[in-house]
Specification:
mainly alpha
């Protein structure tokens, strides 16, 4: 069995996932919303709209697994006593994707 150092971040991110998905879906407003929360919570999925013009199946799947993957990464880093550098790196990458979303995503998703 894995240690609590690993399990706690994984469980927290798994629990957060449906809440973030609900926020992103509510923000989209059935296509008539402003997508702000979707861009903040799921910037990689929203960036895919630049290429495809809509949110396509594989990137919906990415949105669903994004935060559990974050949890696995942070849990592994925590176990290796590298929590801070991995977390800072993840936050920077996520923040850069958010900025790119707000700068590049088409007006259909504004």
């Amino acid at each position: 069995m894995k240690s609590p150092r690993f399990l706690i971040p994984v469980i927290l991110f798994i629990v957060a996932t449906p809440l973030f998905l609900l926020g992103g879906i509510a923000s989209a407003g059935a296509g008539h919303g402003n997508y702000v929360f979707a861009k903040v919570f799921f910037p990689f999925t929203m960036l895919s709209t630049i290429l495809f013009g809509s949110i396509v199946g594989p990137f919906i799947a990415l949105a669903i697994v994004q935060y559990p993957l974050y949890g696995l990464l942070i849990g592994t880093a925590n176990e290796k006593r590298k929590f801070v550098p991995y977390t800072v790196g993840l936050v920077i990458i996520h923040a850069m994707a958010i900025v790119a979303c707000f700068l590049l995503v088409r007006e259909n998703f504004s």
